[in-house]
């Protein structure tokens, strides 16, 4: 039986299809009462699962088309970033940002508000200027970012149609230099959060929340930016590092300030390496960036309750956007990411963290492990009702829904259990 990236979710579809043409995909949508798209399955909850028809779009004719005048590239939704960004770079163009992994699909990233980092950088769904998709009746539609429905279609959680391709905003290609500053105190990070996290084009802070209160700052500088000799009393690392201490860094992208193209520096991991072996479950929680110092203090207090279960934690900043179901909707945000050890994962630990974060109006990453219920999610997503009205218009029969969305978005079930 197929499973997700981590292997903690076994998919339970009754049938699985890999359409070879748009016509075949439209016919599948028209013919079946329930149908759900699965991409690279880099998810840690049941958002990609279904007990009905599952489809994968990887065998559709692939689209990669640059429009230099409009500064967009049209790409198939099923493409993984690593499959098209080398060609984009070779033709002199770039995306403004990338996620930690280039191994994930465009469609899945857009649908769940996956992100990179940077004080001024929005999530990957914000790259989209137009979407081409199939609605619940099997009709092919196109919507651009000047349409009133556009902000609801992005971060659609699989409910706003089956995307066949996206037009992504592009800019001239650029180079990045990556430098890691070792042993940055989380107390210094608290005191100067925006300054430290804004010290480079893209910045991540990795910590295990141990009693040392120290972490490593992964800074990605555009090649015209000055590289500081030190940040928060921390000096550049002299040996190559992996985010997790003691792990062979061979899979990590190049460091020590070596100049390289954006495609080889913005991700933490190289495309030709598998960055993990599956013994992990991930959670991520987003709060307003101006509350970050308080949340750092909270996690320092809670750390003894989760240290044994934690591989590593990563802090990243994401600029606000207007996408209705985005984790950064109308607030500059910071994501507190946790990579848990699957071997001793305890749901009660995550539930406890979420209970403490409610006072900060946290939003969970849609593709990672969380236990918030529909009532809470409605309270932190002010456009939820408008989003549901849009999904009903696109898919009046509800054929794109699954247990995950019924429970957490539509609130059709009274208890969540462990679907998320």
Would you give an account of this structure?
This protein is α+β, with helices and mostly antiparallel strands and 420 residues long. It has a domain at 374-408. Helix content is 22%, strand content 23%. It has eleven helices and 18 strands. It has helices at 22-31, 81-90, 106-112, 150-153, 186-191, 193-197, 292-306, 347-357, 374-380, 384-394, 403-408, and strands spanning 15-17, 35-37, 53-55, 64-67, 72-76, 93-94, 128-134, 140-144, 162-169, 171-172, 175-185, 202-207, 214-222, 259-261, 281-288, 310-318, 333-340, 363-364. The strands form four sheets. Strands 14-11-13-12-16-17-15-18 form an eight-stranded antiparallel beta sheet. Strand 4 and strand 5 (72-76) form a beta hairpin. The longest helix has 15 residues, at 292-306. It starts with 14 loop residues before the first strand and ends in a 12-residue tail after the last helix.
How confident is the prediction overall: mean pLDDT? 93
Largest sheet, described in full?
A: 8 strands, antiparallel
Can you tell me the residue ranges where pLDDT is under 50 for at least 5 consecutive residues? 413-420
In the sheet with the most strands, the strands line up as: 14-11-13-12-16-17-15-18
For the CA atoms, what is the radius of gyration?
Answer: 21 Å
Distance between the termini: 20 Å
What is the ordering of alpha helices and beta strands?
Answer: EHEEEEHEHEEHEEEHHEEEEHEEHEHHH
Strand content: 15-25%
DSSP helix fraction: 10-25%
Instruction: Please tally the helical runs, counting DSSP H or I stretches of 4 or more residues.
Output: 11
